[in-house]
Write a structure and sequence with these properties.
With 325 residues, the chain is α/β, with parallel strands linked by helices. 49% of the residues lie in helices and 20% in strands. The protein has 14 helices and 9 strands. Helix 2 runs antiparallel to helix 11 and helix 3 packs across helix 4. Bound molecules: beta-D-galactopyranuronic acid (GTR).
Length: 325
């Protein structure tokens, strides 16, 4: 018996030696608003895996999806205060923290995602990244926020005049509220996860979003009339807190940055397929899509917005750069 005990002790010691030095692990919390399988979620998971691999397991990122840690405006504050370490934000709520980002929410600014990424993967993206970094957010990758359109429960808009008087859900973001007001409608700021209930309770008549969100949230089940305006084409960003970034070694920063850039490419690729799938699912379940015939009346209504943000020194330069290129 004693012989066996001694043998066991030797074996345990040998196993410890084989395992090599104990690696200190840092657990990081990442915030995400979307469900499993959504392009953002999948790209974030791939990012987490790559960081774990590139740092030999020293950094383990837990992706908390579905806004379980709180809504987006709250998460923006949580990242600033260090309660969470990473997040994927859309440019609406992010612009409340960094005023210059507001410009990215202006209607009809980018013609398509390719136009948008030409700027974000270039000098303008660098400028936004610098401003965001100074505000506490280090951008690791620009994700696609898609093209947003309106959808309504009881009315079936075929003209922007058909939106007049409607209560339209918007994100907690200045420009979205201004845009809806200029359409003679009433903006109702509601957290993303409360929009479905808002429709069901009759608190809102319409909302606006991209097609993957329209489908993944189930909004299509209660708001079947889609008015395809593509009025905002905007990016989202995978960010890490500046506080965490400052603690990383130069080698680890490189791992994070490369993983972020790769996850952005993966996300953009998954996104394009998901847009088509989402439209198909909603159409099969009875959603009606009415394409805008002439966008110019909508654009003309937005004139006060363009004037305002052209006069605003925090957005003027960016706006001019995008419009000119
Ligand atoms: C989605 C976006 C979310 C959030 C949401 C909303 O398209 O991915 O980050 O901004 O829209 O409308 O609240």
């Amino acid at each position: 018996m004693r012989k066996w005990v001694r043998k066991g002790a030797w074996l345990a010691a040998a196993l410890v030696l084989c395992a090599g030095p104990v690696v200190a692990q840092t657990r990081l919390r990442a915030w995400n608003i979307h469900p499993e399988g959504y392009p953002v979620t999948e790209a974030m998971k791939s990012f987490a895996q790559q960081v774990a691999k590139g740092t030999q397991g020293r950094y383990q990122i837990e992706v908390h999806s579905n806004a379980t840690l709180g809504d987006q405006p709250k998460a923006v504050q949580m990242l600033k205060s260090g309660e969470i370490d990473l997040a994927e934000f859309s440019s609406g709520p992010l612009s409340d923290a960094v005023p210059g980002i507001k410009v990215l929410n202006l209607p009809f600014l980018f013609t398509d995602s390719a136009h948008m990424f030409r700027h974000l993967d270039g000098k303008l993206g660098e400028r936004f990244s610098t401003n965001l970094k100074n505000a506490g957010f280090v951008v690791l990758g620009w994700y696609d926020g898609g093209a947003r359109s309106f959808y309504c429960a009881k009315r079936a808009p075929a003209n922007i005049r058909d939106l007049a008087g409607a209560s339209i859900r918007v994100q907690q973001s200045e420009i979205y509220k201004e845009m809806v007001t200029l359409l003679d409608a009433k903006p109702v700021a509601l957290p993303f996860k409360e929009v479905l209930a808002g429709f069901e309770k009759g608190d809102i008549d319409c909302a606006e979003n991209n097609m993957p969100s329209y489908e993944s949230t189930g909004h299509y089940k209660v708001a079947r009339n889609v008015y395809v305006t593509n009025h905002v084409i905007s990016p989202e960003a995978l960010v890490v807190s500046t506080a965490l970034w400052n603690k990383l070694t130069p080698e680890d920063r490189k791992v994070f940055a490369e993983a972020g850039a790769q996850s952005a490419l993966l996300m953009r690729d998954l996104w394009n397929r998901r847009v088509a799938q989402a439209q198909e699912v909603a159409a099969r379940q009875g959603s009606q899509f009415v394409r805008v015939k002439d966008i110019s009346p909508f654009v003309r209504r937005m004139a006060p917005l363009y004037n305002k943000y052209m006069a605003d020194p925090t957005t003027r330069e960016e706006l001019l750069t995008i419009v000119a290129n």
